[in-house]
Specification:
With 407 residues, the chain is of the alpha/beta class. It folds into two domains: 275 residues, Aldolase class I (TIM Barrel), CATH 3.20.20; 104 residues, no CATH class. Strand 3, helix 2 and strand 4 form a beta-alpha-beta unit. The structure holds 3-methyl-2-oxobutanoic acid (KIV) and zinc ion.
């Protein structure tokens, strides 16, 4: 099976997401979790952007030794020198240089001609190679770049010694078939591409970042750039947990492997949310609160009979403690009975009917029935039944109609 390099950019592109900035210590904590998660590359920051970013890259490079540590730089001398300085103690340093190549960026942002762009890309990669052997180049806004010109730039930086060519869909504009075509064209037209890793860097503006990344892999890319919980500029980047689990759950469609320890995904997601105070949306694939929750009665019945009925992966495989059968008004008797048993009470059919009747009334009022809501109800019915069996009139029984405390 082909190996897909997982390049995590939570600490760089992810941090560019509004409200997600992190201080040096927080970045280090996150980097250590990314190391446990088994990502191959950690993009630790953009050292020229601020002293904090410089220090974070430096600290991570010193302390996190297994993965490659990458630092971002524009095709400018001061950026590249600053990135090299931040990485000087890294066990496996990578400088990631980028330059926009689309006409819209060249004309309105950089005010550069295509010739100047080509020359600047060459110089940037040449300079970066004087510091490190591992140099990644990104033609920013590649998916809106004239394909002929994109191929020209890619050939130029490969000739200068770039070792990874990353193709960014900077504004989340591309589609899976179009992106695959771009990757295939670059592979076909670039001399020496067999020694280069092609990478996909997709944004989620149209909700296709993961699909586009996987389409790129099918077309020959062997690195995916992604972030925890899919955070990143605007609508975010491809979410690492979705990429990794798509590959793991569908090897028939995606016959690739990654080095990610999937059981660490949930902890990484929770840690990021805790550090940034940005909650994970409940229905977020893989790491959302509801990703393994089942409320509808039919679903709960199926889950209890065999979890494969409604779960395509186990919660344990991504580090979620357990799947949650949420008891609400859509739940059925079966799920209720299982919950009662877990709480230490078993009932016959007629008794369960009574508990269920009361449960539905309660669920109508409070949406989700937690154990502490359910217990008084169970105890009440349980003691009534015990009294009936002993022949005591309900009105004389201690606990009948009483509270959890009395019981
Ligand atoms: O989206 C983008 O183009 C980027 C580059 C810097 C790789 O983040
Ligand atoms: Zn990006």
């Amino acid at each position: 099976m082909s190996y897909i390099t997982i390049f995590d950019t939570t600490l760089r592109d992810g941090e560019q997401s509004p409200g997600c900035s992190m201080n040096v210590e927080e970045k280090l904590r996150m980097a250590q979790q990314l190391d446990r998660l088994g990502v191959d590359v950690i993009e630790a920051g953009f050292p020229i952007a601020s002293d904090g970013d410089f220090l974070a890259v430096r600290r991570i490079a010193q302390l996190v030794r297994r993965p490659i540590i990458a630092a971002l730089a524009r095709c400018m001398r001061e950026d590249i020198e600053r990135a090299a300085k931040a990485l000087e103690n890294a066990a496996r340093p990578r400088i990631h240089v980028f330059l926009a190549t689309s006409d819209i960026h060249l004309t309105f942002k950089l005010k550069m001609s295509r010739e100047q762009c080509l020359a600047s890309a060459r110089e940037g990669v040449r300079l970066a190679r004087t510091f490190v052997e591992d140099v990644e180049f990104s033609p920013e806004d590649a998916t809106r770049t004239d394909l002929e010109f994109l191929c020209e730039v890619v050939q130029a930086v490969v000739d200068e010694g770039a070792t990874t060519i990353n193709i960014p869909d900077t504004v989340g504009f591309t589609t899976p078939d179009e992106f695959a075509h771009i990757i295939r064209t670059i592979r076909e037209r670039t001399r020496g591409i067999e020694n280069i890793v092609i990478s996909a860097h997709c944004h989620n503006d149209l909700g296709m970042a993961v699909a586009n990344s996987l389409a790129a892999v099918a077309a020959g890319a062997r690195q995916i750039e992604c972030t925890i919980n899919g955070i990143g500029e605007r609508a975010g980047n491809a979410a690492i947990e979705e990429v990794v689990m798509a590959v793991r759950v569908r090897p028939d469609r995606y016959p690739y492997e990654t080095g990610v320890v999937s059981e660490q995904l949930f902890s990484a997601s929770q840690m990021l949310s805790e550090i940034t105070h940005v909650p994970v949306q409940p229905n977020k694939a893989i790491t959302g609160r509801n990703a393994f929750a089942h409320e509808a009665g039919i679903h709960q019945h199926g889950m209890l009979a065999n979890p494969l009925t409604y779960e395509i992966m186990t919660p344990q495989s991504v580090g979620v403690p357990d799947s949650r059968l949420v008891l609400g008004k859509h739940s059925g008797r079966h799920a209720l009975a299982v919950r009662c048993t877990a709480l230490g009470y078993t009932f016959e059919r007629r008794e369960l009917d009574e508990i269920y009747r009361r449960f539905v009334l309660l669920a109508d009022k409070i949406k989700h029935v937690e154990d502490h809501d359910l217990l008084p109800l169970i105890i009440e019915v349980h003691s009534q039944i015990a009294g009936d069996r002993a022949g005591t009139p309900a009105a004389n029984r201690a606990g009948a109609g009483g509270s959890f405390a009395q019981a």
